[in-house]
Amino acid sequence: MKKAFVLLLMLFLLIPFLGTSAQDQPVTIINWWATERGRDTAATRELHFQLARAFEASHPGVQVALSLYPNRGFGTRVLTAIAAGEGPDVWYQFYAPDIATQGFLEDLTPYLEQSSVDEGWFESARRRGVFEGRTYGAPRDAVSGFIVYNKDIFDAAGMEYPTDDWTIADYRETALALTDLDNEIYGVGGIEGGEGCMMWSPFSFNLGGELTSEDGRQVAGFMDSAGTIEAMRYCLNLVTEDQVATPASMGEQFGEITFMSGDVALQSISDWEVPALMESDLNWGVVAPPRFDENTEVVPWADSYMYYMWSGSDNKDAAWQLIEYLTGPEAQRMAAEAGVWSPNSPAVWEELGWDQDPIKSVSYNQLVGSTLTPNYLRSQFFFDCVYPALGDVRTRWIEGGERDLETMMADATSQAQACLDDGYAGLPAGS
User: Fold this and answer.
1) Which of 49, 166, 200, 312 could form a cystine bridge with 170, CB 3.0-4.6 A?
2) Does some domain include residue 4?
3) Last residue of a domain, one of 352, 368, 384
């Protein structure tokens, strides 16, 4: 009788636990927002879900609610959600580091102090997330800029392929030689023929000019300097005087990378464009960017998308676990092997043999030598202030037919500097 009572008591005590499974345990849900660009391949979408599921498998009790949005308007969508108190826990974007002054980014420094994940990152990728000695972003990838060329166009013209020791003068001469307007063959793509030439391409570092100060707050003395004026002249002349750049109508069809038309000999691209090229039928190769002249070395251009954590997140520890995983070697290998993103770590590139690959090694050599942050990533107000001012110069030159570039660049500098000054004056004291 006593034994039966004891058994009944034990059963009573176990009742709350009977039927409990792993699915019934408390689960932390992390909202990860991501985006797709127009030139992304189908593998890009699939990779996001693969990464989310792989993370969940190694982090019991944490689930990822993944939302994929179109690239257009994605930044506004994120900031609108944050303003409404409904921001994602984790997302990626390409903010200038001083966006940290706005207060919506979590300082990742304390998390990194307890982690070793950042020890393997490219320096170019690491510095993208650092502001005043604190880290606010972690690199999703690492890319550099280089030149893609159409082998068929070179072969048809009987010209040798470009080599890594060429200069910007060689680039222009090659473009002139290969342009055949009667047959709609163009020497260069659309990026080189406008303000993009001075921003998101290696030309921005190798034409002898500079748009902004290192911290992005000053354009006076940079944007209106003699070197930058001549650099901008080089870019604009590709459209008008040289007539080697693709027309705007081609850009409407193929976007910035008009090389994809098959009718362009040369174009500045980055690793972000390589997956689409890999899926194309084009006969192409890549080469290092041209240097300024025979007495200079190439100045590498590098960039990275960055993962951020919302400072208003209710699940910061779990959000950090996701960021740590996504920027670590396992996830980086998955992205590389899927042909979607290039890894943020030189060790992963080397493990994959990319440092010796005929295509990938061109980018790898640029990444390991990168020391400068692109000018459009130095100030949170660049796209409000500098970009439109430089766009006005292009419009006045190409559409308005003006040729007094010194005055045009002076006007643009004055406009951009006033805008930058207003922007920084509106920040909290000490920012």
Assistant:
1) 166
2) no
3) 368
